[in-house]
Write a structure and sequence with these properties.
InterPro entries: Poly_export, SLBB_dom. By secondary structure, the protein is α+β, with helices and mostly antiparallel strands. It is built from 3 helices and 5 strands. It starts with 8 loop residues before the first helix and ends with a helix.
Length: about 150
């Protein structure tokens, strides 16, 4: 069996036709457990189900509510395939020509990662450093105040 959503129809149709209970059977098969995972700078992160064939990257980004203000549209990666030897597809969302690629039709278990801009990442680091330094400075100032009042 193939991995595409339409792949299993053929063998099932052959099996039903082989039973000779139906003449020219029409098989409608919906696979409902296909999913992709969005991580990083998306409005909504998590698992998203692929509900129709040929769902594209743009479709799923729209379903997730778009990208955040801090997202770097040039750093999107799609990780596809088995975990030992994954295929990594780099996408520049700013380049309209790269969005036409056939590789952007999503497959089951694709992982889509979008990094923040360098300035947003730096800002986040500075905020975390500030959260550590600020209480230390309060204690130092309090110590200096107590020391100056006792003299």
């Amino acid at each position: 069996m193939t991995k595409t959503p339409e792949g299993p129809k053929g063998p099932i149709k052959q099996l039903v036709a082989g039973l000779k209970l139906l003449k020219n059977p029409i098989i409608e098969l919906n696979i409902v457990n296909l999913k992709v995972t969005l991580l990083g700078e998306f409005s909504k992160q998590g698992n998203f189900f692929i509900e129709r064939e040929n769902t594209t990257l743009i479709d799923i980004i729209g379903e997730a509510g778009g990208i955040t203000k801090t997202a770097d549209p040039k750093t999107l990666k799609i990780i596809r395939g088995d975990r030992n030897h994954p295929e990594i597809i780099y996408v520049n969302l700013s380049d309209i020509n790269s969005l036409a690629s056939k590789k952007l039709v999503l497959q089951n278990n694709d992982i889509i990662i979008l990094q923040p801009t360098k300035s947003a990442a730096l800002s986040e680091k500075l905020t975390s450093v500030n959260n550590v330094i600020q209480p230390i400075l309060v204690v130092v100032n309090l110590g200096i105040l107590i020391l100056s009042l006792t003299r």
